[in-house]
Amino acid sequence: ILLYKISKLSTVEESSLDSKLKDIDSELSITNQDSVFRFFNNKFEGKSGLELGRAVADEWQKVMELFRMLDDWFNTPYLYNTIGLLSQCGEDLTHIILHFMGMDENSRREDFIEYLKGRVRLHLKSVKVNHEEARIESTYKERFTIYKLLLTLNIHLLNEQNKKFESESEIYKFPFDVLNSQNWDIEHIDSFQTNSLTKEQDQIDWINVALDDLHDLPDEKRKEICQLRDRNAKDDYTNAIKIIKEFAGEVDNDEDIKNSVGNLTLLDSQTNRKYGNSLFCTKRRIIIERMKTGVFIPTGTQYVFYKLFDTYGTNRSQWTQKDMETYHSFIYDTLKDYLSQDKD
Fold first, then answer.
1. Which element (helix H / strand E) includes 155?
2. 3-class DSSP state for residue 244?
3. Reduced to 3 states, what is the DSSP secondary structure of residue 265?
4. Strand 135-136 vs strand 264-268: parallel, antiparallel, or unpaired?
5. What pLDDT digit, counting tens, does each position of 269-303 carry?
6. CA distances (Å), 245 to each of 193, 225, 317, in order?
7. How many CB atoms are located within 10 Å of the residue 294 CB?
8. At CA 69, angle to CA 66 and CA 74, rounded to 5?
9. Considering the entire predicted model, what is its pTM?
């Protein structure tokens, strides 16, 4: 199918490629790919002997050239990661291939890399940015836009890490197969649902887990919380939870703050179900435990729960509004080249 698309679009201007690709995809969905068979069958129709052999050899040469190109991209981590990112954003691989094939023979790999960065910028144009205030204004409500932004953050961080490695055995390609099989989505770091603990047993369990994970909780405050828990009264459970959250620095923020990019990360659905609306310290413990068992946690998500973006040395067991602001600034500073308006 790739070769079919390339053959059909080889003379089309690049500015028109995306619309033409949509037309071909619509055609293929209707014809159930019969048009691909007819296209190549027509190339050999009426030929025989040496003439047929040459025609088949010509087409096979095109297949091998395409294979070598894709094999090179597959085995070059930066290209693999960035082209994979574009694919996740909805880019048709055919567009990238046609651009590459049309590049000047004196072009360098760096020129192709700059082209790929430009395509990433194009896919992030929907991100609302206030460059004067160095802020990203798109929120959780713009789900696909934020998903593309956070995925770009993860790919960029991985590519930057790879630059520091000297051995090929230490260079990593992003596991897009895991991304597609584990149902990753955007998750709130400080849980969006603040009043979801309606059942008394859920409140008790939440308090017990929090007490286990808050290792720096003073003995007097721990005793006070335990007394409230053991009274078996709903209001006391609520008060115990309030004391814990205040100590952990997780005061209830308004919807706009919780939905801002500084409180969002990518996570697989199974991990998210495990930690629900727990304290940050509990979420952090669960993330680390899952990493130890071999579960893949995206680089950007690791930055969040290890607080690798933090230069202030804040408490690693808390997630406060200050952390949200610092993380937000980190995302903007890391990705501003992709969000720069003068490079659209």
1. helix 143-163
2. helix
3. strand
4. unpaired
5. 777 776 667 888 888 888 888 889 888 888 999 99
6. 14, 11, 12
7. 6
8. 120
9. 0.84
